[in-house]
Amino acid sequence: MTEFYDNTAGADDRGLWPGDCGTLSLDARRAFLQLLRGPMLTERRHSELWAALVTNREAVEIALANLFLVLVLSEEDGIAFVRDAPAEDERIPAAVRKSKLTFCDTIMVLTLRKTLMLEGDGRAFVSKREVFDQLASYRAATSHDEAAFQKKLDASWSKMTKNNILLRTEDDQRFEVSPVLSLVFNAEEITALQEEYQDLLRETEKEGGRE
């Protein structure tokens, strides 16, 4: 007689398959997996997983620590993500896969973050055209003509939407800037980005003065 393993038991049941030695509940494991897949877990988009994460936060943090990761969670903003453990031991590897930002990625992230931080209620909405208009002055700092620069901006915009930095709304033309941009950088990284932002401004102003 064929036996089917029942994994529909209560959330506190641990044996999800024969031989399962996991210690997290089903939803807590799903939340853990979403954190690993990235780029973030949000209360708005993953309400059940969010509740499981908050309830099992300590256990999830222990599981992440075993992978050289730490949890960043803001209950106020309803956002959670993981970052590499702040370890100084050179034997501890970096666990989070990072992709290098292009010039256009960088100026777009900086502009979006600035827009978000200027909003008093912590929420900011933008259109593609508004963002591109703000970034138009940076073309002088590149070797690209107008068409090529627009293509680069389109690629960066697609990257921001794919990675949920820009969140779709009911209006196809309006996107919400993810609050994660107010959390993802530590104090040193914020300072570095601000300095880079100022360098970019000076560079574009210098280039503009030569035209």
Would you summarize the structure shown here?
Helix content is 45%, strand content 11%. It is elongated, with a radius of gyration of 21 Å. Strand 5 (166-168) and strand 6 (175-177) form a beta hairpin.
Structure write-up:
The protein is 45% helix and 11% strand. It has 2 domains: 96 residues, Aspartate Aminotransferase, domain 1 (Alpha-Beta Complex), CATH 3.90.1150; 108 residues, Arc Repressor Mutant, subunit A, CATH 1.10.10. The chain is elongated, with a radius of gyration of 21 Å. With 211 residues, it is mostly helical. The protein starts with 25 loop residues before the first helix and ends with a helix. The chain has a 3-stranded antiparallel β-sheet.
Q: How many DSSP helices?
A: 7
Helix content: 40-55%
Mean of pLDDT: 83
**What's the shape?**
elongated
Oligomer: single chain
Show unreliable segments: 1-12
Q: What is the rounded distance between the termini?
A: 83 Å
Topology, number of strands: 6
- Reading the helices and strands in chain order gives HEHHEEHEHHEEH
Percent in strands: 5-15%
